[in-house]
Design brief:
Blueprint (H helix, E strand, L loop, with lengths): L6 E3 L6 E3 L7 H20 L5 H8 L3 H9 L13 E2 L6 E2 L6 H15 L10 H12 L6
Antiparallel strand pairs: 1-2, 3-4
Helix pairs in contact: 1-2
Bound molecules: zinc ion (2 copies).
Length: 142
């Protein structure tokens, strides 16, 4: 297969670049790596710094710092230093997008949402109605 030239626009700066499985152009990736190193080193020397402080000291955008945290690339060691909120329940978390509880619950929800789909052939009409309703209103309290 001939290599097709797959040009895409960088998600960060919008410039076109040769797509290689990454959503950002090489320049932005390099910038991001440098920013990441700066932030990491600053946090290493100043554990417990807030995002604002880190941003000011390293001149890295807060948005980018939060992105590193969301991606789980930065880990906050200080137990009292929570930068993020769980996107689902809003509880304070140290990295990623969801708290442990929600991660767990969502895994369960996913399973319960997928399972009823397998019962495609209804034997009794009442049963199929029931399973249909259950599929639509997936309950998460359990
Ligand atoms: Zn870029
Ligand atoms: Zn949560």
């Amino acid at each position: 297969m001939p290599m097709a030239l797959d040009l895409r626009n960088c998600k960060s700066c919008g410039r076109a670049y040769q797509y290689d499985g990454n959503n950002y152009c090489t320049r932005c990736r390099k910038d991001s790596e440098e920013a990441y190193t700066k932030v990491k080193e600053y946090l290493y020397d100043n554990p417990g710094a807030s995002v604002g402080e880190v941003s000011e000291a390293t001149e890295v955008e807060e948005k980018l710092i939060l992105k590193f945290l969301r991606e789980g690339r930065l880990e906050i060691r200080d137990e009292h230093n929570f930068f993020l909120d769980c996107e689902r329940c809003g509880v304070a978390i140290k990295s990623g997008r969801f708290c442990d509880k929600c991660t767990h619950e969502m895994a369960n929800e996913f399973r319960s949402a997928v399972a009823p789909q397998k019962k495609e052939e209804p034997k009794k009409s009442e049963d199929s109605k029931k399973s249909q309703r259950m599929y639509v209103n997936v309950k998460r309290d359990k």
